[in-house]
Design goal:
Helices cover 38% and strands 13% of the residues. It has two domains: 211 residues, Alpha-Beta Barrel (TIM Barrel); 88 residues, no CATH class. An eight-stranded parallel sheet has the order 1-9-8-6-5-4-3-2. A three-stranded antiparallel sheet has the order 7-11-10, with no helix packed on it. The structure holds flavin mononucleotide. The site of flavin mononucleotide (FMN) has 31 residues, from strand 3, strand 4, strand 9 and helix 9.
């Protein structure tokens, strides 16, 4: 039985985990209630557990997933998942076979996000139950290096796995159909669900994404977590990415020295984000959430994928699920 049948969802539509409160319990619960698979993004452990509980409650008892960013994952996150009703875990930002083993001991089905054949082979050999193949058009942090459907074909040819989900470029029923016809077991969408009523992002962030006319890959928001990410422009990127979209070399070098900071508790990283201004080039990975000061929309990362250019409105999550599933 394929991994999506084992999970037992009505539509092969997965809402991507989006950490720090962007995809929390309300969004994940609404997606699962509508027959997709909702995913709670990583948060500090206690909050993570509360949001997983909320997601399950909102879903009406349907399957829900938890997302872990591997560099930030602690034992307390694994224990929070074990106590919750999430029995699907998606991993991103690295791979750790011991983590997979621990999650599977707690009966979780583990999907690893990959962008290349080497990463796919490593994750399958390391025990992953399936893979999320991310394309370079995806929003947020990137392992993707080529368009999603090309990566899917390449990874399928190399691994012969049928448990491959596709992330990147999914915003309509036609996108989903194309991915499923290309052999994907399910589609994973982030930007489409960023632009939903239940998503925890700041309203001004959502409106900026709708109005955006380009996205680009950068390293600007890398303090504490140096990894490529796709964003839309704001005052911070206008100021610091003019000559090089990745940001000034000195800032990137500084960021690479701060990768040890990822072991700081996530609450400290959030507090750090609140102090950011476009003029001081010291930018961490946190994105602006509802309830934060609106000025942060110009000082923090506005993650979005290339589908931002094709999405025109914020809709209820259930509408987005039906749209992607191609059901009226
Ligand atoms: C706002 C935003 C935040 C994201 N945060 C995470 C995250 O915390 N964990 C993760 O696995 N992926 C994250 N991603 C990437 C998604 O998992 C997924 O690969 C991507 O959204 C797919 O491309 P799309 O945005 O074109 O749908 C994020 C994406 C966006 C747009």
């Amino acid at each position: 039985m394929g991994v999506i049948d084992r999970i037992g969802i009505e539509h092969p539509v997965v809402q991507a985990g989006m950490g720090g409160g962007i995809a929390a319990g309300m969004l994940a619960g609404a997606v699962s209630a509508a027959g997709g698979l909702g995913t709670v993004g990583i948060l500090p452990p206690k909050k993570f557990e509360n949001e997983l509980d909320l997601a399950y409650e909102q879903s009406g008892g349907r399957p829900i997933a938890a997302n872990l960013l591997v560099p930030f994952t602690t034992r307390a996150h694994v224990e929070a998942i074990a106590r919750s009703k999430a029995r699907v875990v998606t991993l991103h930002g690295g791979f750790d076979s011991r983590l997979v083993e621990q999650l599977q001991e707690d009966q979780a089905c583990v999907l690893a996000t990959v962008g290349t054949v080497d990463e796919a082979r490593q994750a399958l050999a390391g025990g992953a139950d399936g893979l999320v193949v991310q394309g370079i058009e995806a929003g947020g942090h990137l392992v993707g290096v080529e368009p999603a459907l090309e990566a899917l074909r390449r990874i399928h040819d190399a691994t012969r796995s049928n448990d491959l989900l596709v992330a990147g470029g999914i915003a309509t029923a036609a996108d989903s159909r194309q991915a499923l016809e290309a052999g994907a077991a399910a589609v994973v969408a982030g930007t489409r669900f960023l632009l939903t009523a239940e998503c925890g992002a700041h309203e001004a962030y959502k409106q900026r994404v709708i109005a955006a006319d380009r996205t680009f890959e950068t390293m600007l928001f890398s303090m504490g977590w140096p990894m490529r990410h796709r964003v839309i422009p704001n005052a911070a990127t206008d100021r610091w990415c003019r000559d090089d979209p990745h940001g000034p070399r000195a800032i990137r070098r500084l960021a690479s020295l701060t990768s040890g900071m990822r072991h700081l508790p996530m609450t400290i990283a959030d507090r750090f984000a609140m102090t950011q201004t476009p003029a001081i080039p010291f930018f961490g990975p946190a994105a602006p959430l509802a309830g934060m000061p609106e000025r942060l929309v110009d000082a923090t990362a506005l993650y979005a994928g290339e589908t931002a250019l094709r999405i025109q409105s914020v809709v209820p999550a259930a509408v987005a699920v039906r749209e992607l599933a191609g059901v009226p």
